[in-house]
């Protein structure tokens, strides 16, 4: 299971890249627009933090296959390391995906809401598909079940495409997707923190500290 950070907030990326086992950073036009700064400055700052080996995902804002390919090639060249272009699923996007595979550029097909969309994206050569879990849950769908069905389909047809589940609002959704066998999740720093947080853990750590200090005071193992 790969954990990816879903933000362009430099402070959050710095923090999470230091404290969590991240495989990369995902963005989309809404995430970039929230920063309201020069696109290439954001890309450079993210790359400087994550280094060349972790994957940086950025989404095309073009609408035709030719322009999507042109934008993806430029982002791939300028991203400074491992890069994957995000393309929303549509006819032009599928055509662009097939072209980009010939050029050896990684593609994540995004805005996936059904297993049928995911299957055709994988057949076009997408390296990843991104089903939107919370957006489905919000309309009384079952986002985690859609992720599970996509994982099952790719196994049935032996497709190498990875399922990168996206749009999470809580740790329970992440847990359910992990059980379904999806290869990656992209989450915000809040959700990442929620994944490692448990009141019983806090109580256990507090108890260890109290018992130790009752006997040894402020002395640590380094002081013996
Ligand atoms: C990532 O690929 C998606 O763009 C993102 O996770 C969507 O998240 P949201 O539903 O919270 O906007």
Spell the H/E element sequence. EHEHHEHEHEHEHHEHEHH
Domain tally: 1
- Cross-sheet strand order for the largest sheet: 1-2-3-4-5-6-7-8
CATH class, anyone? Alpha Beta
Query: Ions, cofactors, ligands: which are bound?
Result: erythose-4-phosphate
Number of strands: 8
What does this protein look like?
- The protein is an alpha/beta fold and 224 residues long.
- It has a single domain (2-197), classed as TIM Barrel, CATH 3.20.20.70.
- The chain contains eleven helices and eight strands.
- The protein has an eight-stranded parallel beta barrel, surrounded by eight helices.
- Strand 5, helix 6 (115-123) and strand 6 form a beta-alpha-beta unit.
- Helix 6 runs parallel beside helix 8 (143-156) and helix 9 (171-180) packs across helix 10 (189-196).
- The chain is globular, with a radius of gyration of 20 Å.
- The two termini are 40 Å apart.
- The model has no long low-confidence stretch (mean pLDDT 98).
- The protein binds erythose-4-phosphate.
- Residues 6, 26, 28, 110, 130, 132, 134-135, 166-167, 186 line the site of erythose-4-phosphate (E4P).
